[in-house]
Amino acid sequence: MDISVVIPLYNEEESLPELVTWIDRVMKQKELLYEIILVDDGSVDQSWEIIRQLSAQNTHIRGIRFRRNYGKSAALFCGFRAALGNVVITMDADLQDSPDEIPELYRMITQDGYDLVSGWKRKRYDPVSKTLPSKLFNATARKATGIRLHDFNCGLKAYRKQVVKSIEVYGEMHRYVPVLAQKAGFRNIGEKEVLHQERKYGTSKFGLNRFMNGFLDLLSILFIARFGKKPMHFFGTIGTLMFLLGSAAIIWLGAEKLYHVYSGSRAPLITDSPYFYIALTAMILGTQLFLAGFLGELISRSASERNNYQIEEEI
């Protein structure tokens, strides 16, 4: 099979028939073998009933339904797991992503050799309350990850099959699939400017809180990618440095006390110095951080996936 189109959705009953018809028309024009995987993320409208009808009318359509709303990352994970195509295309169900972009995305994967191609909506039909925070968010993500993409959060992306089968999308990490792919060893990541259309039906399912969540998720993924299997390198290093600094401060205060005693001058109480409490706090925190790294290392060593490595090929 050439292409799997994975579409996560939540309460998109009005747009589904039009979207599926549009994708079907594009695929037939290009004579591509395809499947459409519609992942219903716990919709409370008639979305699932419409998916049933569409699947009965078109054998290319498959459906996955969650009992409740789990979020876009969960929908993508299940869609990726079910995908059979050599190239996997993801897009939103609100008709703001154009299926006409699919053939070129497919060509970039199969002919240009990209592992992942992300869409870039240069011109967006969204309010300033969404576009301005999005620019700040993307600039931060580019700086932190080194991946030169203009729009990490664009739902329209294309993947080589091996990519989606090698990564785990969880939590709110759907924003950072390119980062997950890079950390899994897929570094040939490209970008394509795509058409962004005005929303035709319904309202946006995302609020302003997603941008704060996005920054927190970025910190999480960078930390896990670098220290997930070696937490002692992070916590142990910081803990040891803090403990040594605290110990050095205590030694300095003790030496100062001894100097006054042997010189016959009045020796101030060590506990009168604020540095004593700062040093004591540093030593306690350093010990706790070191123990946190030690416990994290024990958990990491006991994890079943501790030796789960992605092998490209064998001969």
- Supply the number of helical segments: 10
Coarse shape: elongated
Level-2 CATH architecture of the largest domain: Alpha-Beta Complex
CATH superfamily of the largest domain: Spore Coat Polysaccharide Biosynthesis Protein SpsA, Chain A
The topology string of helices and strands comes to EHEHEHEHEHEHHEHHH
* Largest sheet geometry: 7 strands, mixed
**Amount of helix:** 40-55%
Q: Rounded to an integer, what's the Rg over CA atoms?
A: 26 Å
Low-confidence stretches: none
Q: What is the rounded distance between the termini?
A: 26 Å
The averaged pLDDT comes out at 87
Task: Explain how this protein is built.
The protein is α/β, with parallel strands linked by helices and 315 residues long. The protein has two domains: 3-227, Alpha-Beta Complex (Spore Coat Polysaccharide Biosynthesis Protein SpsA, Chain A); 231-302. The protein is built from ten helices and seven strands. The protein has helices at residues 16-30, 47-57, 72-82, 102-110, 128-145, 161-164, 177-183, 209-227, 231-263, 274-302, and strands spanning 3-9, 34-40, 61-65, 87-90, 116-120, 157-160, 189-193. The longest helix has 33 residues, at 231-263. The chain is elongated.
